[in-house]
Amino acid sequence: MRLDNVVGSLPGKVSRMPESSSQPSRPRSGSRRDEAARLAVLHAADDLLVEHGFGALTIEAIARRAGVAKQTIYRWWPSKVEILLDTLIEDSDKRLPVPAGKPTAESIRDYLRGFARFLTGDPAGKVLLALIAQAQHDPGTAESFHQRYLRPRRDQERDLLARAVDAGEISPRLDPDATIDALVGPLVYCALTGAGIPGDLVDTLVEDLLMPRPR
Amino acid sequence: MRLDNVVGSLPGKVSRMPESSSQPSRPRSGSRRDEAARLAVLHAADDLLVEHGFGALTIEAIARRAGVAKQTIYRWWPSKVEILLDTLIEDSDKRLPVPAGKPTAESIRDYLRGFARFLTGDPAGKVLLALIAQAQHDPGTAESFHQRYLRPRRDQERDLLARAVDAGEISPRLDPDATIDALVGPLVYCALTGAGIPGDLVDTLVEDLLMPRPR
Amino acid sequence: MRLDNVVGSLPGKVSRMPESSSQPSRPRSGSRRDEAARLAVLHAADDLLVEHGFGALTIEAIARRAGVAKQTIYRWWPSKVEILLDTLIEDSDKRLPVPAGKPTAESIRDYLRGFARFLTGDPAGKVLLALIAQAQHDPGTAESFHQRYLRPRRDQERDLLARAVDAGEISPRLDPDATIDALVGPLVYCALTGAGIPGDLVDTLVEDLLMPRPR
Amino acid sequence: MRLDNVVGSLPGKVSRMPESSSQPSRPRSGSRRDEAARLAVLHAADDLLVEHGFGALTIEAIARRAGVAKQTIYRWWPSKVEILLDTLIEDSDKRLPVPAGKPTAESIRDYLRGFARFLTGDPAGKVLLALIAQAQHDPGTAESFHQRYLRPRRDQERDLLARAVDAGEISPRLDPDATIDALVGPLVYCALTGAGIPGDLVDTLVEDLLMPRPR
DNA sequence: GCTTAATCGAGACGGTACGTCCCGTCTTAGT
DNA sequence: ACTAAGACGGGACGTACCGTCTCGATTAAGC
């Protein structure tokens, strides 16, 4: 089973309101969900992660910071991981869309460069790394993370590569998924190990893995 | 700052008794450290991680399982991460030494294949992934993990590559550290995302990244 | 300050609709109070108390059981204690009226026997005991319980005794309030401690405390 | 089933350390129970009850006030009721022992006067009333309260009365338990309803219920 | 053989966070 | 206007571990 995937998303509206569970079955009466509270929670979680790390990211701390009751969090999110997923999905859809349209070797290179920048420079990159990490510790996180983030992006990336191959822009020697792993893996690994991502890494990977070998 | 590194270690004895803290000076009298307790703790930690995941890996659970008092653990290890590091170092020194001697393209390929097997098939591979993960959540873990595991292996791997280049066996287009990241990163990333490692991934990576490009 | 009192009430209509809060003036327009909802709440409270005890008597449980919104309860009753008071007043007016008319030693004895039965056999007896109990825990309950239940009954009981003394039927040696306490106290105490009320207790109390001592 | 009882206890040592559960099975090693913490909890509970009422008596408040961790309370007491029982038993053994030795009508009268004072003037009296109340709300409390407090005192009181009857000091017309209920009930009832206990109540009860009727 | 000191098991301790329940207030839609 | 529905900020519940501590019992080197 192949269920990972890392980047992209059609720039169009995908999920303006990323409710963790599908839809809350539209209540016929009663108060509706408080959008301000929802945003306060997302931002509080994001801020706490960036400022104090995943260790300080407790439900109580999020509630405190967001000025929200604990129960309000438990009402809408089954775990802090889903909160982070909500922010990650919103942010990476916004700031790191998988290129649509006619692909070129250049647009793929740009996308990977953007991904490298996202990982090392964007607060949402920290969220991505934290989720990759937490997925190692907890099967529930792994499942959710794959379903809601990795798989959808991987689908778009695979499609991107296929179209580029069709257009004769690239000719990878590995199958599409393995190719993506070979391109994205080094970037993620560098980020995970705290090392920076060398400037020529993306270029060389694209050159060596995607470009036709002369002979 | 470059502080990652993933595999190897001279097969020779490096640390038969991996005391996390330096050495307990010289015990002028009284009982010495109980080796049975030490091993019980290491095995309990390993078993718990493999059987129930990192979430169930609490000091109390380790003590319970090892039949040891909590204080006995705190006396010798500053955190559960150091326990895992002890087991990881022992195991990967034993089962995944960085090849010494005259390197060939073939021996590098074998080492990477062994690494892939280690990640996906060996219990110690789970420990490695758990530590990579925990390093994202806690700076102390990151520091220790790099100092005691990643850095030493990376030094040996860098040396291995340099000798292979000198021998004309390989001609990578990236600098040594980036080359290792590009080779190891995809394997780790596949393991982290729960996907298997495709059979031809190592071969193709070696071929595309280390072999001279014809022209 | 003397504010207790335990039984009776003129059999005539005293409060068909015991609105805890005064009365909602005159409803100038819109729906009037839903009598069905009011009764549903009273019965739900009563049932829950009898079936699962005071501990399970939460506003949310009452609302759930009555099929009524929480707010509907809060609109009409300031607390669950007032709900119980409403049921208690209705029930004890109905099933345990303080005898009116010309009193005899016999009618007083009957009233006390009825009270004993009320305490041990009637669901409303459980309500009375629960309110006595809750009055120990909460001053607001104590105040309301005395004002709305104990004081009015005590007034009637005191009057009953006075008329009986005037008629030469009894000649207690204590002042009226103390006499009532001496008669009612043992019954309540037996009920509170879970012991049954011995069959001859009422008779002997009446004989020893109300009848003239021979000498 | 008769299980109530209210006052007394041989003046001799009965339970210097009223551990809720019998004995903690003498731990062969490890820290022993912290007596200071035990006392801090008992006093905090007592103080909170007297100062702010049973409603404010939460485990968290007790822990806060006693400067103790919540878990330390849960380790030794199954509920706040048992804490109150511990204080009540210690206090009433100390300040309201059931008279031993040769009983006279006078010593019984004194004991009842002491009981009246205990109920209305002693902080421990508030504890007793609170426990009587809580026993109405919770069967577990009722059970514990009867087993640990009411039953033992009732046994001593019954014995006291029996000895007094044998000595020809009194000649009650009710059986021993009912006699005690008839004497103690009015006092407790007055205390429960917040009324004071009239000065001549005890005297008249003793005179009318225990003294031989002339004729 | 006796002293001395470090280790061991056990586990109590002050804490923090967990996830749940209910409080009493409020807002929304429907009748 | 009143209802059912239910979200909201709050706070206590009882549990699990945290890392520190104290207690005897055991063990082995040095006297």
From TrEMBL, chains A, B, C, D:
Listed Low complexity bias regions: 15-28
Membrane spanning residue stretches: none
InterPro entries registered for this protein in UniProt: Homeodomain-like_sf, HTH-type_TetR-like_transc_reg, HTH_TetR, Tet_transcr_reg_TetR-rel_C_sf, TetR_C
Location of the region described as Disordered in the Swiss-Prot/TrEMBL record: 1-34
Domain HTH tetR-type: 35-95
Keywords: DNA-binding, Transcription, Transcription regulation
Signal peptide residue numbers: none
DNA-binding region(s) from the entry: 58-77
Gene3D superfamilies named in the record: Homeodomain-like (1.10.10.60), Tetracycline Repressor, domain 2 (1.10.357.10)
Name recorded for this polypeptide: TetR/AcrR family transcriptional regulator
